[in-house]
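Lab meeting, action items carried over

1. Structure of the three-component assembly. Owner: GW. Status: complete.
Input record:
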Amino acid sequence: MLAQDRAAAGAQMPLLAHLNPEQRAAVTLPAGHALILAGAGSGKTRVLTTRIAWLLQTGQAAPGEILAVTFTNKAAKEMLTRLSAMLPISVRGMWIGTFHGLCNRMLRAHHKLVGLPQTFQILDAQDQLSAVKRLLKAHQVDEEHHPPRQVAWFINGCKEEGLRPDAVPAPNDETRQRVELYRLYEAQCQREGVVDFAELLLRSYELLRDHAPVRAHYQRRFAHILVDEFQDTNRLQYLWLKQLAGDVVDGQFTPRGSVMAVGDDDQSIYAFRGARVGNMQDFVREFAVGQQIKLEENYRSCSNILDSANALIAHNSRRLGKNLRTARGPGEPVRIHEAESDLMEARWLVDEIRQLAADGMARQHIAVLYRSNAQSRALESQLFNAGVPYRVYGGLRFFERAEIKHALAYLRLLENPHDDTSFARVVNFPPRGIGARTLEVLQDAARAAGCSLWDAVSSVGGSAGTKLGGFVALVEVMRERSSGQSLRAIIEQVVEGSGLAGHYRQDKEGEDRLDNLKELVSAAESFVMQEGFGRDAVALPVDETAALTQSPVSQGVDPDAPMGGPQLDAAAGETLSPLVAFLTHAALEAGDNQAQAGQDAVQLMTVHASKGLEFDAVFICGLEEGLFPHENAMADQGGLEEERRLMYVAITRARKRLYLSHAQVRMLHGQTRYNMASRFFDELPEGALKHLTPQRRSAGSFATDYRAYSERQSRVSGGFDLDYSSLGSAGLPARKEAPAHGITQGAQVFHTKFGEGRVLAIEGQGEDARAQVAFTRHGTKWLALAIAKLTLVE
DNA sequence: CGATAGGATTTTTTT
DNA sequence: AATCCTATCG
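Predicted assembly:
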């Protein structure tokens, strides 16, 4: 049967009734590998969930044969929710979750094979950084030369490429040293029984790669694999998928099973953290994908908005090619506003928002998007002053708060005292007179003996009388008191017993923190209620195996045993304690990163955070050269294209109304900056736009009309101490002389020592004038124009 | 040992 | 401007 016929036949099914032909074709594809190019707002999640439902309903798959992978817990939950609304049957048995969640599950099940304790703890980014710092200190590595952040970044980068230290190419000394640190870091983690995020994936990949029976089992089991947001996968995630859906023999890959990858290359905005859009092309080639379906019908935006998005993204090369269309009318034009300053931009925005609200638009359907978090402050203060309720996304999440991390560290120590990260975190918190000196001695002892800090206590004379000994005794007492207790009782007991509660009661500003600690108890309570210790599909660390297998099989895989069978899935019989399950949950799902669950509040967030959301009205602020596109993104090839995709994502969030704004003057990092309008303005179709302020030149037209820009630049520079509010948008102040040096923002310049570069920003005047120049070969530098010999290049 | 002052350091971020 | 980290002082 041809795809069309099948789709037509399927139209009878209520499940498929509300799908358009493209969507229906995707949902009803025959088994085999497929790539679905799903444009923004084209019903991607709907297709994914309906596909699963359809597979089950037509009897092509049993729930246990389905694996669906997402990036965020939110997406996984969303899928599960929609699915259970669609299906009468239980979703139990399906593996639906994040890459990390699923890998965690596999590792718990096969912990012995991969050489981990079943109760291994997971390091989040913070934990990892402090682990690296400890490592550097222990090995007396110069932090100037190897900044902890960069070392961590290097290690994660290697892991995400699927490389262990031995396999990392090290062309120079610098890299060789980092590889050595990577090696030491691994040893440290292994000794402590902890695993970072990237390690979850890498170990899980190696488990599949190196243990044929396990691989065969999961390959058989997951006859249908679905991957969401495929454009965001990194190399390791792709390798992991290949293990699950094919065999690699002598470097030759033979696909098997059925993988449906859903993604949108135009919405790839995470290349900066290792995402590889190229995986889409590789997937098509290596899996010999026969079926590619494009979902180009957009159900979200009016055509002026969509046309703008299409026109913008058309400026990118290397696209798979896709054009969104909508059946909705043109709608309103895209409104463009130029403000004198960031402050005026915020004021204008507040006025506009009030107007929208007065016209009946719900505030929660209005979003204000910006490129970087630093921009939110100015916006917030204006909204606050005007009394407009708002809600900011981003920032610390619940399980990342210091007091919560402290409490979790104590809990982790109960479970595994050799977790040095946790030990170091709370050994002197609340303060109990154990200082840096003592710790240093302890750390040296631990390193010399090759043991954990915990075990080293006795060797530095940490008997019961000493402060260190007291700490050890305290933890041991808490552990004893915890045995046999409910999770709630354990946490309450630890919060009190550790002295955390007492400490924050003393602190006059500790009230919020105390509340959060109480909240931790409720979080644990509801975790126990909802997840039944994680036996549920999303958050569950250990899978359904406990339910599947009655007989206590203590180890996951016996290579000689017949392949398949549920016992391969997990170490049944070994149920995780509620505490370990909860700690895992805390690490893998750090909680909401949105502020107070506001009633009817305007939503503020970065463009990145807005991905996947939609709003009636969207404001995109700070559309200036250097900010959006961000100057730091321009350093490498492809940086501008990623910025453009980011802009594309931002535009396509809007349903009915879209505002784009920029400011001439902006305070950034405590400095006044004069920015040109973003080049993205020049990439939008004039017919879809409406300029709310008199039009001026933006960056893109700069090269062709240097004089006009130079006039403007000098004009703005002249307004240094002006009250911006007095600068009406129509009334231009008197023109001032152009700077004598002739160097302007955006100009191509030459320096005798650094070579060619582009001027990113200029500040100050006369003798004090300085320019920030991005040199092609020597990075970005600030140069005093009176001193540096810069010449203009045509 | 702990508090405080100075200094660097600021894209985006999930797990 | 604001925050986070380090070095120094009491």
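2. GW to write a short summary for the group page. Key points so far: Residues 533-573, 702-735 of chain A have pLDDT under 50 and may be disordered. Chain A has five domains: 1-112+201-297, 121-192, 334-397+594-691, 399-541+575-579, 747-792.
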